[in-house]
Amino acid sequence: MTRRVVAAAVFALVAVPLLASCQRDAQPTESTAVVDPNEWPTFGRTSGEQHYSPLTEINLKTVSRLKPAWSFDLPSENTLTGPVEADGKLFVTTGHSYIRALDATSGKLLWEYDSKTREIAGIKLRLGWGPKGLAYWNKRVIIGTQDGRVIALDADNGKVLWQVQDFDPKELRYINGPPRVFDGKVIVGQGGADISAIRGYVTAYDAMTGKKLWRFYTVPGNPAVDRDETTQIASKTWKGEWWKQGGGGTAWNAFSYDPELKLFYIGVGNGFPYNQTLRSPGGGDNLFLASIVAVHADTGRYAWHYQICPGEQWDCTAVMDMTLATLNIGGQDRKVLMQAPKNGFFYVIDRATGELLSAKPYADKVTWAKGVDLKTGRPIENPGIRYNGKPGFFELWPGVRGAHSWLPQSYSPRTGLVYIPNIEGGAYIGDEGVDFKHQPAIGGMAVNVLPDPTLPGAHKSFLKAWDPVTQSARWKVALPGNWPGGTMATAGDLVFQGRIDGRLVAYDARDGKEVWSFQTASPVVAPPISYSVAGKQYVTVLTGSGASGGGIFSTGNADYRTDYRASRQIVTFALDGTGRLAPPEPAKPLSSPPDPAFQANPDLEAKGAKEFGMDGCLVCHGWNAVGGGAAPDLRTSPFPANKASFHAVLHDGILVSNGMPAFPELTDAQIDAIRQYLRARGHAIDADRQAAAAAPAQTMGGDTGGSFAGTWTVVMDSPIGKQPATGVYKVVGDTLSGKQTSSQGSLDVQGTVQGQHATWSGKAMMPFPVTLKFDVTLHGDTFKGKADTGPFGTFDVVGARK
């Protein structure tokens, strides 16, 4: 038994009285949190996933002395990951499972290991940015890879001790969540149910040998041939031949463990396809989608479940972290599981039985349900949420991104509060016009969804301190952008959280007052950790944006533009640290690369915009090609300007080793269209700046007289640039009718005229039904105003008489 382990054992007996000597804890001691306080060996530090450090050297009185102790530069790749620390070593995964071990006190590189995932993963390289973390157990570092390997490395030298393949490499699954190791068992799930017909499951391996111990399926298989426990229990809640669609239910992020009850808790994800009409015709709860499932740790047998979204079809998932705690509720100590999932409600559940104790909305706006019935445990759904076969869209709050993403909440027993990185935003979802018979094999979700539209109150984020007993917010802090960093609470009565503007901030855990901050060179979104070596406490975090908040969901962070190439680092702080970090460089103005041969081609650009979206480019490179840090901003890239180079990247995969996947199935025509779209988006950067500088002040006054009747050239701004059309309008009395024709099709319109002001609207396919509304004012032979494109936003529109 090492000296450090002996010290930890002694601390486990006396820790609570020592830490409580200054101020009594608000809630009772939690059995899953009593481990070596000096280390952070797994994603949530303990099996209860509290993201809480019992260390107190850094506290409200001393935090002002917190300074960098050391830093380590990282390449431009995925750094949105949680590190772990044990035995004086810090272990970090970046990119696609590239592992580094460093001295935890100095940052000296001890060893590194390249899993070669990028070269192996093939098409699965398109599915994710890389793992969110790793784990340590008994001198082993455990990692998962995008291509489905689970690998144990020797913590002293990085050599492979064992390796297993978790799933068939031909399947479109991938491992992106941090593996957990509890009581010598490695717990691994996968992602992929957003885009492929797979059946979710979770597997336990022996941490010492890699031997498979058990597998638990999260959705049922075909009852005629499958005999597993889940099929026997859950198949009656499904309809039709769901197994042909896979079902989904991947458990890609959240796991917790109670060592006394010997129960593992699994957070289960969404269904595939999203639309229940196709996935399970006839309805049903579709267990265990969007559920928390408890299984017996030794056998993987089912114990209980609680489903947060029965019959889910909105990307409603229960994959957010599950925090275990002991709460005094009504004078009785209850061992509970707490979760703030995407759907906007905070759940407190008895973790021994699965009984729902309470559920209240923690999100500011929730449109899918009025509340949760505590008698049945079921949500009280609002009308319209079941969009199947209905016209138009349902405005869904929280949106498909959720009110809380995977970046972890934390819990402090000293305050009794849960600290939630809260996102406020909506989405549009519906299935009007969906061709159920011809859904693509990859990505065929059978819905129309606008994931991150500009809506009143959207694109906001907060740090919320939530009281799980009273189910109310104790305090909240408004944050920049809408990609809030993961949190860490400490016994020093502090809450640490990074921000998209590059600051790591410490707040007073009791009232939310900011007590310390440090400006880094790039966004801080990854969750911080804290540990102690030789009696000195450290705080470590990785810098750099990424994942969905730096890609498809980066719209709300536009004011905090993140260059993918910006400095990324491991930064470690200590009291009176003497490390030196270079000051952040000011962001350079966006500028397009030289492209003298560029000529506008609206038809080809429109096709390219569609390809950019349908082929998944926007997932990493951002909505409308506006990069947010997950991948390069292609508007500023030199590659689109050179046809041969762009083809080599997209078709031949010459940048696979950099994390850019190949798309060999794309035709030359498709690649040319995407290239033209990106060149136009780059050209628009300078053109828009020049136009804004040269534009005269606009007024809504103008000439009187004239008529809207006649043929017009209409130009509307849009997410893909200016879109020209021809409008032919007829005016009879105060009624306007006619047709607008563009490269994307024609639009029959009708409206009204009042003097020099007119409004008209019509339904277009973009590529699903959207109603366009125009509100303009006439100025002789021109008009100008606004065009409301529904979920796509509102844009300027001008017209000139032909």
User: How much of the polypeptide forms β-strand, as a percent range?
Assistant: 25-35%
| Sheet of most strands | 8 strands, antiparallel, barrel
Structural class: mainly beta
Q: Which regions contain 5 or more consecutive residues with pLDDT less than 50?
A: 1-21, 694-705
Q: How does this model look, in words?
A:
- With 802 residues, this protein is mainly β.
- Helix content is 11%, strand content 35%.
- It contains eight helices and 48 strands.
- The protein has an eight-stranded antiparallel beta barrel.
- α5 (602-614) packs across α8 (668-694) and α7 packs across α8.
- The protein is globular and about 80 Å long.
List the helices and strands and how they pair.
Elements: H1 3-19, E1 52-53, E2 66-74, E3 84-86, E4 89-94, E5 98-103, E6 109-114, H2 117-121, E7 135-137, E8 140-144, E9 149-154, E10 160-165, E11 180-182, E12 185-188, E13 201-206, E14 212-217, H3 229-234, E15 247-248, E16 255-258, E17 263-267, E18 271-272, H4 276-279, E19 291-296, E20 302-307, E21 322-329, E22 332-339, E23 345-350, E24 356-361, E25 369-372, E26 379-381, E27 394-396, E28 410-412, E29 417-424, E30 427-430, E31 448-450, E32 460-467, E33 472-479, E34 487-490, E35 494-498, E36 503-508, E37 514-519, E38 529-533, E39 536-542, E40 568-575, H5 602-614, H6 617-621, H7 643-652, H8 668-694, E41 710-716, E42 723-732, E43 735-742, E44 745-754, E45 757-765, E46 769-779, E47 782-788, E48 794-801
Parallel strand pairs: 1-34
Antiparallel strand pairs: 2-40, 3-4, 4-5, 5-6, 7-8, 8-9, 9-10, 11-12, 12-13, 13-14, 15-18, 16-17, 17-19, 19-20, 21-22, 22-23, 23-24, 25-26, 27-30, 28-29, 29-32, 30-31, 32-33, 34-35, 35-36, 36-37, 38-39, 39-40, 41-42, 41-48, 42-43, 43-44, 44-45, 45-46, 46-47, 47-48
Helix pairs in contact: 5-8, 7-8
